[in-house]
């Protein structure tokens, strides 16, 4: 019996030894990465990422981040999952607003009433948008049961009364644009708290701020058919967590993971995204273009007003059964009027094809989470109504093969930078968070001592990721057989 505590103590001691021995060396290396990141913004160079074309004016990715996009999305491969997002053609940045001393810009905000979206969502318009959705973006599979379910909910959405009593749907885009401000925050902000741990999934009727694990194309990621359990029912603020990045993912055709479930149940979000596909020039006739609802490595979307129009059984996670009709429950959206979550959509780094993180990977993950959390704080108003509790979970730790401990630490640091508190939902389906908590406790320091600056914590995290097998990605060269739909 004493062997287990002794082994745990030995492992903790080994972890602390790595931290102390690597901090100085990693600090120098960290300065190099921060310098490189600043140079990428001040002097963008297409040659740094020859595999990712730099978008023309109005494109998805700011030209200042070509190398970042290459790194963040390089494992997508080619075809409809390719690393580049394409050229974003309908984003209006004329009202962009800088958030002082944060390095972040509120790029654009779009708002639609449910009444207007319902009047648009006719059977004809929805069929046309679905055809674009499937042909231009999600062309690998079909799921007739899911399309039938979506049509059933669409009919409810356009016919349910009292839609005007529900908060309008809105989507706000935030972007990290000033690396000088961001680098100053990394050096000045110190770690002061560790997230509270909660067992189980989100409770959307009680938690004021939740994370939806999103895709770079908002709405879901069709790139891997293997379903992975994620927290799914939370309130007021949600964050989508897996990539490619058109918000909502493949909800209109196939795949039923966290983000797709959220968009189907909160159907106004689905209608907002589908409408954008017909508001733009056809991406089928104009290959390489995309709608406004995508995100780059430096961006995140904040969604509001997504009242619930239906509820689906938790057991449908991953795939909708053929006999779905008796399982779906249609709802009065006004019942969710006071508990509708704010949804923070942030796509995760995709670790497929790599065993270990390097500093660039960790830096990009931190930037993404920081933009998302700071955007949630800004959208919540002044004072930020939801800042006391942003609920999150194992961001990118399913089909994206990220390490649970790395995800936990990165989100903790991002919350410190954004000045929000986190509640972390653990499902017990991954690596133990014990070593991550021990790591953060060491960074907090002792009684009457200040926590370590975020940049120093990142240096030590880099050391762990490069030297310890307990902190590498969960990707393996010989994965288990994939579930077939």
Automatic annotation (TrEMBL):
GO molecular function per UniProt: poly(ADP-ribose) glycohydrolase activity
Domain PARG catalytic Macro: 295-429
Annotated stretches, region: Disordered: 214-239
GO term, biological process aspect, one: carbohydrate metabolic process
One Gene Ontology cellular component: nucleus
Compositionally biased intervals (Polar residues): 226-237
Protein name: PARG catalytic Macro domain-containing protein
Organism: Florenciella parvula
